[in-house]
């Protein structure tokens, strides 16, 4: 099977790896000039950890871990209200791993770069789905026919728009904005995370073993607050306005966005679709079932989704429709369980009133001194673990 994958992120490179392993011929087209390095820290849990193990990458992932030692909640004066170890702060248990997104992407890319054709600095301009294949025209003018096309191009998937229609039908704004970018480590953090919570506004900064600087992240309530995704200056004004009255280190962190090459700003959104496939085109990862960064499961969904899609296509013996149906049947429950985490988590991460913030800070301060605090932390992590293991992975090897 000759497969075109749009997007060289984690979903796209992982799909290319598994398709090649099953004897298919994948081609990956990526708008950027190379795979994206750096990025924010992400978690690999449950079934996704098993996928990484089957790829032979577990030890490499362990070597590249962020090694964040812990985190603290701080108030406006900078006092640490509560602190906990890195795994508890990040909602990890057992063998769960934390790594920078770019490091994981590079590890998977390195597995595939000598066996997969990567078309960087290009993108799909149009596609025509027919009985014998999908005719694709690229931005570069190149033309080719593929048995199957897979959109692995994220929340704002261009492939999804071409095959299924405008994103307004599928992308659901959760009522919050998120921004993240690199900043100087002016607090001298050593593999530590600090989180400040205000009414409707959360800000955090962290350092990792892989970065001499730091990252700053902002989450804030913004119901129906539209913006231009191509206008960075407008986005930065919007962010500065949202946090103009906040204390702690927020003003200093915001100053860092002017020089940040990796500035990112978007809505917190989920993708919900009745079908992930139409004709010979299908979707994987955020393009199909984005759970939002608030879920903490975007990378795990991408890894598991790529594994299942490749396996089901390979086992369908050339019948793409059968492969797509089995992919959706096998993965739907897992995707939905992980999407449920997003709305619940964001309500705990961004609190809407000063009274909520005061109550949460008081409880956190008390919990830090209570006996049995480890059991309380385990109860918080349990829903994440349950969603992360909500699938039994088949073996597709022949």
TrEMBL record:
Source species taxonomy: Bacteria, Bacillati, Actinomycetota, Actinomycetes, Streptosporangiales
Gene Ontology terms for molecular function: FAD binding
PANTHER family (UniProt xref): MONOOXYGENASE, OXIDOREDUCTASE-RELATED
InterPro entries: FAD-bd, FAD/NAD-bd_sf, FAD_aromatic-hydroxylase
Every FAD-binding domain range: 2-337
Protein name: 2-polyprenyl-6-methoxyphenol hydroxylase-like FAD-dependent oxidoreductase
Organism: Nonomuraea dietziae
Source taxon at top rank: Bacteria
Transmembrane portions of the chain: none
A Pfam short name: FAD_binding_3
